[in-house]
């Protein structure tokens, strides 16, 4: 049984559109767990009224992404989940999204799978996974190298975001949950999929499964649109900061091969210190 885990904090309009897209799936037979982390916009009441089949896990407003996802996964596992998918609330799933994920999950039952992401406004592909060269801290964006005719099926990647991440039960039983202690918000998904890959579980981006996203609504983009010294501090040190130096250090120490670690850290610090003003 597949359980979809969606952490939310306010932004009911996004959550509603996401859940409506799941209602339109060509394949049903899955359950949805929404982790409502102390929303103040009436999300909980609206969920119960409009989506009574959704399982609600309530937080106190201090879970952030990682602990919220973990709370939902725990509930799903208690209910007998054989697969779990983490999903952000600001995505819209194509009608065959779940079907296409399950097709490949049946073929490769130990694989961790992500999805091809499209811009909700233009339907243009904007994220299709990447590979990382740890030696030089350089990333190869698959969308920049894959010809259009090859944008289908599975493509191996170094890690995946949690916006539409399918995790087999065996992976959860083997490596546990996301690292909420050291990575409370950003990089927890990249860390988790990196750890899974090191444990022998293949990690792929599934180009047959499509999610539409709002690239301008991400926390990092909003912060960069309103540059300030306070924003710069939050970028580097805040829990929701996309350039959080502490999170990057933990991610690097856990995942970067030791011979490449000094350069990887120095290069990553430099990028975060100046990147806020360059993008």
TrEMBL record:
Q: Does the keyword Isomerase apply?
A: no
- Indicate the family of this protein: Belongs to the glycosyltransferase 2 family.
Q: Which GO terms describe its molecular function?
A: glycosyltransferase activity
Indicate what this protein is called per its UniProt record: Glycosyltransferase, GT2 family
Check the UniProt entry and state the signal peptide residues, or none. none
Pfam families xref list: Glycos_transf_2
Keywords on this record? Glycosyltransferase, Transferase
Question: Sorted alphabetically, which InterPro entries does this protein's record hold?
Answer: Glyco_trans_2-like (IPR001173), Nucleotide-diphossugar_trans (IPR029044)
Q: Which residues form the Glycosyltransferase 2-like domain?
A: 4-130
Which organism's genome codes for this protein?
A: Hymenobacter gelipurpurascens
